[in-house]
Amino acid sequence: MRLTYKLCLTSEMAIYKSFILSTSNYCQTVWIYCGIANAQKLDEIRERALKFVFKDRTSSYEILLEKACSHSLEISRIYLAILEVYRCYYSIVPQYMQDLFTSNKITHKLLDPYKVDQAKFNTVKYGFCLFTDFAARMWNGLPPDITRLETIHIFKNGIKQRFLQNDNAVRSIIKFPN
């Protein structure tokens, strides 16, 4: 006998969150550069599980994510990278983490002093594919009014209100080379 007929939606969502979502969210900062094929496989697993939960085989992945009040793995990784830079910038993490990012030493008032330095590198393989570069690009793409928020709770709410409402707004701060 199939289990799907015995479970209600809340039970299926609990199973989805405890097994599928927790596994895909585990250590996301490591999976930022897992490759397009592997990222698509992770998203396909989540899509298949959401189709099972909602008993909907025709809706797109974006619609299923909206029903589950969730975001794609790409958006979640960007969000976590920005949070890590915030924690480093405002000294919420240990010193060894703070050493990953250095703030700009800007003396004139025209530029935003809340930017972090992006490392200069000669190769894409050993420079562009680093967490510090990715997170610095995401942080520097944020507007100054978001980066200046005082507490982490206000910062998280500001990010959620401003960007996580619209996935395209989050993708607009991503700056990848051609």
- Could you state the order of secondary-structure elements as H and E? HHHHHHHHHH
Count of runs of 4 or more consecutive helical residues: 10
Largest sheet: none
Give the structural class: mainly alpha
Average pLDDT for all residues = 80
Helix content: 55-70%
Shape: elongated
The radius of gyration computed from the alpha-carbon positions, rounded to a whole number of angstroms, is 19 Å
Number of domains: 2
Kindly state the number of beta strands: 0
Q: Note the beta-strand portion.
A: under 5%
What multimeric state do the chains show? single chain
Low-confidence stretches: none
Cα distance spanning the termini: 52 Å
Q: How does this model look, in words?
A:
This protein has 178 residues and is an all-alpha fold. Helices cover 57% and strands 0% of the residues. The termini are far apart.
Topology:
Elements: H1 9-25, H2 36-54, H3 61-67, H4 73-89, H5 95-98, H6 124-128, H7 131-140, H8 144-147, H9 152-164, H10 167-171
